[in-house]
Amino acid sequence: MNFAMSDLATLVPRLFDLGLNLLTAMLILVLGWWGSALLGKWVRRIAGRSTRVDPTVIPIFHSTVVWSIRIFTLVAVLARFGVQTASIIAVLGAAGLAVGLALQGTLQNIAAGIMLLLLRPVRAGEFVTLSSGSSGTVEEVGMFLTRLVQPDGVHVSLPNSTVWNATITNFSRNPTRRFDMPVGIRYGDDLDQAIALLTRLVNEHPLALKEPAPEVRVFEYLDNVITVNVRSWVASPRYWEYRWDLLRQARLLLDENGYQPPVPVRVVSEARHEGARHQEAGQQEAQQQKAQHQETRP
């Protein structure tokens, strides 16, 4: 009886210490998880308001802050139960080596994501086209994936390594873009008047930039049309609006001044009559020769 009481007396403090450590570990875990989420939101909000921070790096910066705090939280929880930190680091190092060998492609995406964030060939909000065939507005460059939104509203998620290894055409990086509009003028129409009309149209358009100055020049001569090129510059965000409006106004202006759209025409009627005439002449000559041959026969 006395032996049981002594065992119970030694067991109670141990259970109390275990419960206290468990309660403390749970408190650290909850506070660490809640604090990481709160700090992540705060970092995202502050970075989003700053004009010096590129919006492209905000998602990956948010993830780095959140998971760094959570990893330290887990280490602190394990330390409450007597787990040595040095052993944890050794285990994590060995596990990281094994996972790194198994996930080489994933590590390539992480490295490519870091390079994309450092060199910034793409940024959030820019419209890009990749040599792999994808195109759209950059929504996010994350730790593993780059997300694009196509013009039709479809979201495309690409591995960072695919984006990094592709040839990137960025349509939004420069503040201005050039628009070349070919206009066909038929042979026989007044070419100088057409050039004057198109020059006035592009110079008076509110979206066309004055510098560099617009140019309207004869570009080439084709079989049935003279191509006049209208070259002008416009702010990149207004490019498509300007393109659609100028194409519509140019056709309406030319129609109002009597310029008909050039239609490919091939005149073949004369060639057919000439061929039929030669065929008839050949038949008549053959008949005459046949008749003469019959007359000379005894």
Low-pLDDT ranges: none
**Number of discrete helical segments:** 8
**Count of extended strands:** 8
Shape: elongated
The average pLDDT value, as a whole number, equals 81
C-alpha termini separation: 159 Å
Compressed to H and E, one letter per element, the order equals HHHHEEEEHEEHEEHH
Name the helicity range: 55-70%
The main pleated sheet reads as: 5 strands, antiparallel
**Using only CA atoms, what is the Rg?**
39 Å
Proportion of beta-strand residues: 15-25%
Question: Helix- and strand-based class?
Answer: alpha+beta
Strand order of the largest sheet: 4-3-2-1-5
Which helices and strands occur, and which strands form pairs?
Blueprint: H1 2-49, H2 58-80, H3 85-102, H4 104-119, E1 127-130, E2 135-141, E3 145-149, E4 155-159, H5 160-165, E5 168-170, E6 176-185, H6 191-204, E7 215-221, E8 226-235, H7 239-256, H8 269-296
Antiparallel strand pairs: 1-2, 1-5, 2-3, 3-4, 6-8, 7-8
Quickly list its features:
five-stranded antiparallel beta sheet, 8 helices, elongated, 57% helix, three-stranded antiparallel beta sheet
Overview of the structural elements:
The structure is a single chain. The chain is α+β, with helices and mostly antiparallel strands. Helices cover 57% and strands 17% of the residues. It contains 8 helices and 8 strands; from the N terminus they run ααααββββαββαββαα. The longest helix has 48 residues, at 2-49. The mean pLDDT is 81.
